[in-house]
């Protein structure tokens, strides 16, 4: 994980001052080599000790180590590891699309790094042995909840999808100890979803939450938590990064479920064959 990716992936867990430092470093990464810790502190109107503590919290010995890591990340990004074109080489007509693709790639990388393979495996195993998987998301979160419910059903996994908390409460009354509740919530603040999570825990089921990489009420109730890291100062871009990173995470989960069981692979093929005639004119 490069220092810049680490800053972006840890941003949700930072205090307000730490986020200011992180954002300044990310936005001025190419100029950071000319900044001393005192100059950085002066630019942000904070104490030099705050800068040092920020570096140590990220796992660096001090500011010089962070500055060196940032410089290495900038050099790596400029060289693109010999695989990606530099922005200057991209035609003007496609520069905007290239920039968006690059930001999505960064968000997907950060999200992959904050979800250890063991966690993704544990979620896949919980879903695989569940008698029923209950899935809910409110508002825009329901877009991903609905899509995942369809994919799980295609694998032959019994799912109950709902976008109404009251209806889901009634459904959870039949939940059994091995069942799973998948709760989608970008910020994890909806009281209704927290109530559903508590209900599921009282049924001795497993609660899996999908939220941003932040401390939030819903995540605190999870047995297993999947996290998304996606940030951009532009309010019209950040949701695009979030949905892209989340979809990539769910795709990885689906592939694990598909690869883990030959019966599921066969059921998916059979289901697709049954669906195809329904889509033909």
UniProtKB/TrEMBL annotation:
Domain spans labelled HTH rpiR-type: 1-77
Pfam families (UniProt xref): HTH_6, SIS
GO MF term list: carbohydrate derivative binding; DNA binding; DNA-binding transcription factor activity
Record GO biological process: carbohydrate derivative metabolic process
Signal peptide region: none
Segments forming domain SIS: 123-263
PANTHER family linked to this entry: GLUCOKINASE, HTH-TYPE TRANSCRIPTIONAL REGULATOR MURR
Protein name: MurR/RpiR family transcriptional regulator
């Amino acid at each position: 994980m490069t220092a810049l990716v680490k800053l972006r992936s840890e941003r949700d867990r930072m205090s307000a001052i730490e986020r200011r430092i992180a954002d300044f470093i990310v936005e001025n990464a190419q100029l950071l080599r000319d900044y001393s810790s005192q100059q950085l502190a002066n630019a942000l109107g904070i104490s030099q000790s705050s800068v040092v503590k920020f570096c140590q919290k990220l796992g660096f010995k001090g500011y010089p180590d962070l500055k060196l890591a940032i410089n290495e990340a900038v050099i790596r990004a400029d060289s693109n590891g010999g695989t990606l074109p530099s922005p200057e080489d991209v035609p003007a007509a496609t520069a905007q699309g290239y920039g968006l693709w690059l930001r999505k790639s960064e968000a997907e990388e950060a999200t992959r790094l904050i979800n250890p393979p063991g966690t993704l495996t544990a979620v896949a195993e919980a879903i695989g042995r569940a008698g029923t998987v209950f899935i809910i998301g409110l508002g825009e979160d329901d877009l991903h909840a609905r899509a995942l419910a369809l994919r799980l059903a295609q694998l032959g996994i019994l799912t109950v999808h709902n976008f109404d908390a009251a209806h889901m409460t009634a459904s959870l009354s039949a939940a059994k100890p091995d069942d799973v509740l998948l709760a989608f919530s970008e910020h994890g603040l909806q009281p209704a979803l927290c109530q559903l999570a508590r209900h599921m825990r009282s049924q001795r089921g497993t609660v899996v939450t999908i939220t941003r990489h932040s401390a939030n009420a819903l995540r605190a109730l999870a047995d297993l938590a999947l996290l998304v890291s996606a940030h951009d100062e532009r309010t019209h871009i950040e949701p695009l990064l979030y949905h892209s990173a989340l979809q990539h995470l769910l795709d990885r989960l689906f592939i694990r479920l598909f690869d883990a069981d030959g019966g599921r692979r066969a059921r998916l093929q059979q289901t697709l064959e049954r669906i195809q005639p329904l889509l033909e004119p």
